[in-house]
Design goal:
Family: Belongs to the acyl-CoA dehydrogenase family.
GO molecular function, one term: flavin adenine dinucleotide binding
Strand order of the largest sheet: 1-5-4-3-2
Number of strands: 15
Distance between the termini: 77 Å
CATH superfamily of the largest domain: Butyryl-CoA Dehydrogenase, subunit A, domain 3
Cofactor: FAD
Bound molecules: protoporphyrin IX containing FE
Number of helices: 17
Keywords: FAD, Flavoprotein, Oxidoreductase
Pfam families: Acyl-CoA_dh_1, Acyl-CoA_dh_M, Acyl-CoA_dh_N, Cyt-b5
């Protein structure tokens, strides 16, 4: 390693003009003489008397994210450090938690206790955070921007840790698998471990990639696990869990969304086969899926059928407000023929197969969505303390503090509700969950997505123009503001879910309840 020189502030101050320009940022001396003309913010700003040859730390952090300084092309600009000064602003270690108040769920905050999380969860969280930071995050940023699907290399690493399998929850599909390099056993793995994965995914702030990260499989594979015939299960489950094949769920159509009973894709029996015709819309991961779990109209109801991609299956990209890394597709089935043995669950009773998936999907979205919302709270707390306006930090303004108070209260209340529901899931049988949790999960998802949009609005106001700029300081806020409506639609529209919650409560009203 090259030993960096040390300089005094007086020495740095002499380099304060075009062709000979140094600045100090957080005790580090940068030679910007040649970079000035390439600086995205222009060269003029760098020659200002308060910047050229001076300590520009405050100005720098009012305009750039710390990550700018960590990019290899910019770290090279550092020529030394200031004598007897030490850097204060350091990047977090890849497994570290943020110390910004409310940036993490309270079980991760120093000195706080939790009734739900035990040592196994904390160990697991540390390992998942490290893996996500080192392996997945760089890929997330790249794919979110270029719109390409997740690379096979990263999928292979995810599958080696069995992260994809864990995202399906606890159960028989985990049997015999080594989870996160053996840090938890399949028997020990519970819905809090799973919640941790969802939180680590959501906090990346790359909403399109969150779905590109095989979300289609999280909802497309369970019908095979729960309703497929043994031969189909033996072939498809290992292929998908090992990342060799991709699967998605194809239910929604241009004709029917939340109104599943209105589907128009048909499956007609012909000897030992189904012949499938129709179209599906908004199919997450459809662009790169090898397999489709398809909701079809049959003679007396709905039937769910497993369909491998062949020349009669066509997928076209749907351009949406989030990144096309999610692989959102319009799918056309033209006389697709599959064996009757590919039927998932009872013929004409597919609605129960579809509904059986919903609670888990919605609960998963509560986790990723709330985590994204919490990340925005962290962004706002940081920004409002480092941004100086009218000579004071932004958080010296009462109106900003009032917005922060509401944001914090929203994530903390949703977190506590979500953890309570997760605790119930850990203790209830599947049937008890269907009976008792469909309503609360619907209401909780409505609460998280609605408050998410309020937080997106508040955050955009706090960040100003940066909140609508896709790169730089406000990039996470911009991404969140643009994409938070997704969570209010996918997995059941917000209003429909709120209504479901209330209808479930009405069903359970005691017959003798009177004021
Ligand atoms: C090592 C030193 C510096 C590097 C590597 C650097 C790099 C960059 C980069 C990459 C951007 C594009 C936006 C982003 O990605 O955040 C930018 C924008 C900018 N920079 Fe710098 N910069 C440096 C120092 C400074 C300093 C000392 C100032 C002080 C005035 C400054 C003022 C600006 C301004 C005004 C913008 C435009 C910000 C905006 O559009 O919101 N930069 N800089």
């Amino acid at each position: 390693m090259v030993q960096l020189k040390t300089f005094t502030e007086e020495e740095v101050a002499k380099h304060n003009k075009e062709g000979d320009l140094w600045v100090v940022i957080d005790s580090k001396v940068y030679d910007l003489s040649r970079f000035a003309d390439l600086h995205p913010g222009g060269s003029g700003v760098l020659y200002a008397p308060s910047i050229a040859g001076q300590d520009a730390t405050k100005a720098f952090f009012g305009l750039h994210r710390h990550e700018v300084l960590l990019r290899p092309q910019y770290t090279r600009l550092q020529i030394g450090t200031i004598k007897d000064q030490e850097e204060v602003i350091k990047p977090l270690a890849s497994d570290a938690v943020s110390e910004v108040p409310y940036a993490e769920p309270s079980f991760l905050s120093k000195g706080y206790y939790s009734p739900y999380y035990i040592e196994s969860h904390r160990r697991f969280q540390k390992a998942v955070r490290k893996f996500m930071t080192e392996v997945v995050y760089p890929e997330a940023v790249k794919c979110e921007e270029n719109g390409k699907r997740i690379s096979q290399e990263v999928v292979d690493k995810l599958c080696e840790m069995n992260i994809f399998a864990m995202r399906l929850g606890k159960g028989k599909h985990l049997k015999g698998l080594t989870l996160m390099g053996g840090i938890v056993t399949p028997e020990e793995f519970d819905h809090f471990h799973e919640l941790i994965i969802n939180f680590e995914i959501g906090r990346m702030g790359t909403r399109g990639f969150v779905d590109g990260l095989l979300a289609g499989g999280v909802i497309g594979l369970p019908p095979i696990i729960n309703f497929g015939n043994p031969e189909l299960q033996a072939k498809i489950i290992p292929e998908v869990l090992s990342g060799k094949k991709y699967i998605c769920l194809a239910i929604t159509e241009a004709f029917a969304g939340s109104d599943v009973a209105g589907l128009q894709t048909t499956a007609v029996r012909d000897g030992d086969s189904w012949v499938i015709n129709g179209t599906k819309k908004w199919i997450t991961n459809g662009m790169f899926a090898d397999y489709f779990t398809v909701g079809c109209k049959t003679d007396k109801g709905l039937t769910v059928i497993f369909v491998p991609r062949d020349e009669n299956v066509e997928t076209k990209t749907i351009r949406t407000a989030y990144s096309s890394t999610a692989g959102t597709a319009y799918v056309t089935f033209s006389n697709v023929r599959v064996p009757l043995s590919y039927t998932l669950g009872p013929v004409n009773k597919g609605l129960s197969v579809i509904l059986s998936n919903f609670n888990h999907e919605r609960w998963m979205m509560c986790g990723t969505s709330l985590s994204a919302q919490r990340r925005i709270v962290e962004e706002c707390l940081k920004w409002s303390s480092q941004r100086v306006v009218f000579g004071k930090p932004l958080n010296a303004q009462a109106v900003i503090r009032a917005k922060l108070a509401n944001m914090i209260a929203r994530v903390e209340s949703a977190q506590n509700w979500l953890e309570m529901v997760t605790h119930q899931m850990n203790n209830m049988s599947y049937n008890e969950q269907s009976d008792k949790l469909a309503g609360p999960i619907g209401l909780l998802k409505q609460f998280i997505t609605r408050t998410g949009r309020e937080t997106a609005e508040d955050a955009t106001q706090i960040f100003g123009g940066r909140g609508v700029t896709a790169a730089g300081m406000g990039k996470l806020v911009e991404n969140y503001h643009r994409t938070s409506p997704y969570d209010a639609i996918l997995g059941g529209a917000e209003d429909v879910l709120g209504d479901l919650g209330v209808r479930q409560a009405m069903k359970k009203m005691p017959k003798n309840a009177r004021l």
